[in-house]
């Protein structure tokens, strides 16, 4: 048994379109392959087997590496993270690519006693640049959505104080809790600055639904401590999570990850590196995505150097977001699963897995907890070899 498990999610780093990608219009998408091209510096990730998964084979690898396909019927962060912990829904949450029903908008306006503007699917930075000036003049919060099941509310901190924005989001959460709307997350997105130079702040706050019973609950019931870094706790509505650490960006996330590696704890630490998706995937910025990936690779040795012999790392993703693909949405892709410990001497590529839940099943197996969720097959027997 490993004392500490570090589960690291490189948000949106898919490794090739799935068999059912045609249903999503995502055939030929491959986030990693199309991002790195033929000129890249990912020496550490290569040794962990990452590039071998997309046909750029590396010799003298260490650890186990494989691809996994999703069972869930969506391609968003919540579904990806949920599935890692054994939640696979046959009744997907709703998305609103054409904006929210006017009936819901009317309910929201009555509840918060304000008019709202927007009600479109948009990138968060684009919409505050498009509607920020109108928001400042009218005091109307900006409502928008994405390809995920989310309703986001954006406002300038000098127009609507952050605490009031949180209150607005809580009221909207109360309105949308039932099955009529099935919106997973209501997200507060405050921003600052002047017209032409608006900037989103790090005071984002998510108002999520409670997740179904999952592997985090099993860990908690069996006394295994769970620490999250980044947005993960918000997605699980802080349920069965002992400590949650907020981050500003990928560098901040890595520094916190290194600090925990240097420290002494036991249990699961689950970190999400969100910049890949938010800053580069959705904005179809291939050069930025590659630079961000190389940056992660640059700092990774510092983290690895501070690991102990009874540590296990799992590096993965939650979906794809090919920065060279059409549109701006996530892409339906397989994810990498790279498993490493300092005690591993050789590398081996395993067969593809049929669900992300094999990650959570492996973590349960490590802590000698029976998987009663019913989804996922542990990879731990391969680790024992």
State the gist of this model.
This protein is α/β, with parallel strands linked by helices and 385 residues long. 32% of the residues lie in helices and 19% in strands.
For the record, give the distance between the C-alpha atoms at the N and C termini, rounded to a whole number.
13 Å
- Enumerate the spans where pLDDT stays under 50 for 5 or more consecutive residues: none
Under the CATH scheme, which architecture of the largest domain would be assigned? 3-Layer(aba) Sandwich
Provide the residue-averaged pLDDT.
95
CATH topology of the largest domain: Alkaline Phosphatase, subunit A
Q: Would you tell me the structural class of the helices and strands?
A: alpha/beta
Q: Tell me the major beta sheet.
A: 8 strands, mixed
Strand content: 15-25%
- What's the number of helices? 13
Give the total of beta strands: 14
Number of domains: 2
Shape: globular
The fourth-level CATH homologous superfamily of the largest domain is Alkaline Phosphatase, subunit A
Radius of gyration: 21 Å
The strand line-up of the biggest sheet is 10-9-11-1-12-13-2-14
Q: What is the H/E string?
A: EHHEHHEHEEHEEEHEHEHEHHEEEHH
CATH class of the largest domain: Alpha Beta
Helix percentage: 25-40%
Write structural notes for this entry.
This protein is an alpha/beta fold and 385 residues long. The protein has two domains: 4-89 and 212-384, Alkaline Phosphatase, subunit A (3-Layer(aba) Sandwich), CATH 3.40.720.10; 102-207, 2-Layer Sandwich (Alpha-Beta Plaits), CATH 3.30.70.1250. Helices cover 32% and strands 19% of the residues. The chain has 13 helices and 14 strands. The chain has helices at residues 31-36, 43-47, 77-84, 102-112, 124-138, 162-175, 215-221, 232-235, 250-262, 275-281, 286-305, 357-366, 380-384; strands at residues 4-10, 63-68, 117-121, 142-145, 150-156, 185-192, 199-200, 205-208, 226-229, 243-245, 267-273, 311-316, 335-340, 347-349. Strands 10-9-11-1-12-13-2-14 form an eight-stranded mixed beta sheet. A hairpin with a 4-residue loop joins strand 4 (142-145) and strand 5 (150-156). The protein is globular, with a radius of gyration of 21 Å. The protein starts with a strand and ends with a helix. The relative contact order is 0.23.
């Amino acid at each position: 048994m490993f004392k500490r498990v570090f589960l690291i999610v490189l948000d949106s780093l898919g490794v090739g379109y799935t068999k059912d990608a045609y249903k999503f219009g995502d055939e030929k998408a491959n986030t990693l392959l199309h991002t790195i091209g033929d000129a890249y510096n990912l020496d550490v990730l290569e040794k962990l087997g990452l590039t071998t998964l997309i046909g750029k084979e590396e010799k003298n690898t260490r650890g186990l590496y494989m691809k996994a396909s999703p069972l869930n019927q969506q391609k968003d962060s919540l579904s990806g993270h949920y599935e890692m912990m054994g939640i696979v829904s046959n009744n997907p949450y709703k998305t609103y690519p054409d904006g929210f029903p006017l009936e819901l908008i009317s309910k929201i306006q009555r509840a918060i006693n304000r008019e709202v503007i927007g009600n479109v699917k948009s990138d968060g930075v684009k919409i505050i640049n498009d509607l920020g000036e109108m928001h400042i003049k009218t005091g109307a919060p900006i409502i928008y959505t994405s390809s995920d099941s989310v309703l986001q509310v954006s406002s300038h901190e000098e127009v609507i104080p952050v605490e009031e924005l949180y209150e607005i989001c809580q009221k909207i959460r109360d309105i949308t809790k039932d099955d009529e709307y099935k919106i997973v997350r209501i997200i507060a997105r405050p921003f600052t600055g002047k017209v032409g130079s608006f900037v989103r702040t790090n005071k984002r706050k998510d108002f999520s639904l409670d997740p179904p019973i999952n592997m985090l609950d099993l860990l908690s019931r069996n006394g295994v401590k769970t620490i999250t870094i980044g947005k993960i706790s918000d997605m699980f509505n802080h349920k069965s999570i002992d400590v949650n650490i907020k981050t500003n960006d990928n560098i901040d996330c890595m520094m916190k990850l290194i600090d925990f590696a240097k420290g002494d704890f036991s249990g699961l630490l689950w970190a999400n590196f969100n910049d890949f998706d938010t800053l580069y995937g959705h904005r179809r910025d291939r050069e930025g995505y590659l630079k961000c990936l190389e940056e992660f690779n640059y700092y990774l040795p510092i983290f690895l150097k501070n690991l102990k012999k009874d540590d296990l790392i799992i590096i993965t993703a939650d979906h794809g977001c090919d920065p060279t693909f059409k549109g701006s949405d996530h892409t339906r892709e397989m994810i990498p699963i790279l498993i490493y410990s300092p005690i591993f001497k050789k590398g081996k590529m395993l067969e593809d897995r049929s669900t992300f839940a094999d990650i959570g099943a492996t973590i349960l197996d490590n802590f000698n907890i029976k998987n009663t969720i019913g989804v996922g097959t542990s990879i731990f027997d391969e680790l024992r070899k």
